[in-house]
Design brief:
Helix 1 (5-40) packs antiparallel against helix 2 (44-63), helix 1 (5-40) runs parallel beside helix 3 (69-87) and helix 2 packs antiparallel against helix 3. The chain has 3 helices and no strands. The protein is an all-alpha fold. It is elongated and about 60 Å long. The protein has a single domain, classed as Up-down Bundle (Methane Monooxygenase Hydroxylase, Chain G, domain 1). The protein has helices at 5-40, 44-63, 69-87.
């Protein structure tokens, strides 16, 4: 357990940051799962409609340093590639 005042504050900060980061990570996971499910179900039009929302949350997470910029770019690229591969452009 923390003894010093600064260590106690550091724990409070880390818990608050963890909760904040989990919000973004859970949104990203939910959207990616939804898009993959639609692609597997051959519903590429609905999947394409979800792309702007997914891009937005990935960009925001990268901006807030929840995930790295390149991770965001990689996920956007792979999801878009998957949609285009199954449904055509």
């Amino acid at each position: 357990m923390p003894i010093t005042k600064s260590a106690k504050k550091a724990i409070r900060q880390s818990l608050k940051r963890k909760a904040h980061n989990l919000v973004y990570k859970n949104k990203i996971k939910r959207l990616i799962k939804e898009v993959r499910k639609l692609v597997l179900g051959k519903k590429t039009d609905e999947a394409k409609k979800l792309l702007p929302a997914l891009y937005k949350i990935l960009d925001k997470a990268a901006k807030e340093n929840v995930i790295k910029k390149n991770t965001s770019a990689r996920r956007k690229s792979r999801i878009t590639k998957m949609i285009n591969k199954t449904g055509g452009v």
